[in-house]
Design goal:
Length: about 250
Amino acid sequence: MSEDLNESNKLCSSLQDNVMTTLQEDMLPCVSQEIEVGTSKDIKNKVQNENNSIRPLQPSDSYNGAIRDNYIWSQTITDLDVLIKLPKLTLKPKDLRVTIETQRIKIEARQEHEETCNEVIKNLDWTTIFEGELIFKTKKDESVWSLVSGYISIHLEKVSERWWDALITEEPKIELNKIDCSRNLDEMGLTEQMKVEELMWNHQQKLLGKPTSDQLKMEEIMKKAWNAEGSPFQGTPYDPSIIKYN
């Protein structure tokens, strides 16, 4: 009788393994987009601690954003980064269902149960660990997510360049007059970058006592006017000493 019971338990255990393997392969979670983390050893070491502990927070994690109970967010004028705490460190991408829409984020995690032969299917229950309506729209096709130690990391691109005073509608607002509104050069458009570079160059020229870009443009105009028809200087060598830079 004991031998029959042991054999039955073995068959039950084998059945559970086979059922779960099949279900996990056929019912992988749907996601908007996902980044594979760990394809490079350098990247893996950077985002995941070897002792499988929670990744320590950095000042940049809440830059121009806030630290909340179960998530942290940061922003620049063009994008946002969100870290959402995982309920268990051992969760894998297949244990998560991440939905990122234009103005909404929803994350579900696979709920674990103690198994018996008749309760295997309950392992496919999903629990919502984060859900929120974003206060402004983002570019859905540009959103990506990945797993870091203890967190889901989500990157979002803003539809319009503006500072957000909260990530989701239910969240307390931050004071925008206290954030760092400075912008990195690489965050600006090409026209803005060229203008900033021109201003920096003009400042350097002034420090050296040399003409600025506007003064050089004026000098080019003066050269053309020097020999223009009707000019009193027509036919004489151009003399830049006549031009005074203010």
